[in-house]
Specification:
295 residues; 5 strands; 7% strand; 5-stranded parallel β-sheet; globular; alpha/beta
C-alpha cells in the first residue's frame, strides 16, 4: 500500500507539471503579471534646459551695465537688460523671477570696458552665488580698438571663452548659460552717423576702429570697417560653436546681431550704447530665447 501511494503521488506530480507547461506558466507566473502587481509609468526624464530658472547672474561689458542708458558717461545697472529693476526695461531677471525675486536672486558682474579676456574673472565671481542661469554678453570691446590690428585675435577670443565655460562647468555642472551675439557694429555706424551729435561724441574715442572718421567713404575707410565687421562675425561664430558644445548653453542664434535697431535704441549721449528702449529690446530677445521650448 505504501509503494502504491508513493507511485500515485508521483504520477499526479508529473500530470500537474505537464498541465502547467501546456498553460505556459512557471512557478512565478511566467509572462503573466501577478494579480497583485500594477504597471507603473516610467518617470519622465528631467529636461536639460529649465525654462524658468530661479536665479540669474550676468557677466559681460558696458552694455550689460547699462552704460549711458540713463545719464552721460555713467553706468546705469537699473536699466540693464539682464538684471535691471527699471519698469521701462522689464529686464530678463524681472521677467523670469518677478520684481521681488529679481531684487533678491539676480546679480550683475559685468564691467564697463570688459573684453573676453576679462570673462574668466567675472565668471569666478558669478559662480560664488550658485546661479541657475548665467547670461553672457561680451565681444564688442574686443573689436572696438584703436585700430583693426589691435583687435583681439579670434584664437585668443575662443580660448578665453572656453576657459570661462570650463570653470563654470567645474563649479556648477548644472548651471545654464545664455550667450548673446555681438551687436552689428557696422549697422551702428550706419545708423549713428546720421546724427551730428553722435559723430561729435564719437570723436572722443568711442570704437575708433569702426566709428573713426564716420563720413569717410574712401577705400581705406571702407576696408577698415569691413575688417572690423568680419572680425565681429568671427567672434559670433566662436560664441555659437563653443556654446553648442555645452548641452546647458543656449546661444541667441544671432538675434542680437541681426536686430534691426535704429536711433531710438541708441543712447542719446553717445549713439553707441543701447538706450533704455534698446535695453528693453535686448531683454525681449534673451527672454524669448531662454523660454523657448526648442532653441
Amino acid at each position: 500500500m505504501r509503494k502504491r501511494g508513493r507511485r500515485t503521488r508521483g504520477v499526479l506530480a508529473v500530470v500537474a507539471a505537464a498541465l502547467l507547461g501546456a498553460a505556459g506558466c512557471d512557478a512565478v507566473g511566467g509572462d503573466a503579471a501577478a494579480p497583485s502587481e500594477t504597471a507603473k509609468p516610467s518617470p519622465k526624464p528631467t529636461p536639460l534646459w529649465d525654462r524658468s530658472p530661479n536665479s540669474v547672474a550676468a557677466v559681460g561689458d558696458s552694455i550689460t551695465r547699462g552704460f549711458d542708458a540713463c545719464d552721460v558717461l555713467s553706468d546705469c545697472p537699473e536699466a540693464s537688460w539682464a538684471t535691471g529693476a527699471s519698469p521701462e526695461v522689464d529686464s530678463l531677471a524681472v521677467r523670469l523671477l518677478g520684481r521681488s525675486g529679481a531684487a533678491r536672486r539676480s546679480w550683475n558682474y559685468a564691467v564697463t570696458g570688459a573684453r573676453m579676456a576679462d570673462l574668466p574673472g567675472q565668471m569666478a565671481q558669478a559662480v560664488r552665488r550658485k546661479p541657475q542661469l548665467v547670461t553672457v554678453m561680451v565681444g564688442a570691446n574686443d573689436a572696438c580698438r584703436s585700430t583693426p590690428s589691435a583687435m583681439t585675435p579670434v584664437s585668443a577670443f575662443r580660448a578665453d571663452f572656453e576657459d570661462s565655460l570650463r570653470s563654470l562647468r567645474e563649479a556648477l555642472p548644472k548651471a545654464q548659460v545664455f550667450v548673446a551675439s555681438v551687436p552689428n557694429l557696422k549697422r551702428l555706424w550706419s545708423e549713428g552717423r546720421a546724427s551730428p551729435m553722435g559723430k561729435q561724441v564719437w570723436k572722443l574715442g568711442i570704437c575708433p576702429s569702426m566709428l573713426g572718421e564716420p563720413d569717410a567713404l574712401d577705400s581705406a575707410a571702407t576696408l577698415r570697417r569691413d575688417t572690423v565687421h568680419k572680425r565681429v562675425e568671427d567672434y559670433n561664430k566662436v560664441l555659437r560653436e563653443v556654446c553648442a558644445e555645452d548641452k546647458r548653453c543656449r546661444h541667441d542664434g544671432g538675434a542680437v546681431y541681426d536686430y534691426r535697431f535704429g536711433t531710438a535704441q541708441l543712447s542719446r549721449w553717445d549713439y553707441f550704447h543701447p538706450s533704455v528702449n534698446g535695453q528693453a529690446r535686448l531683454a525681449e530677445i534673451a527672454y524669448r530665447t531662454i523660454t523657448a521650448k526648442n532653441p
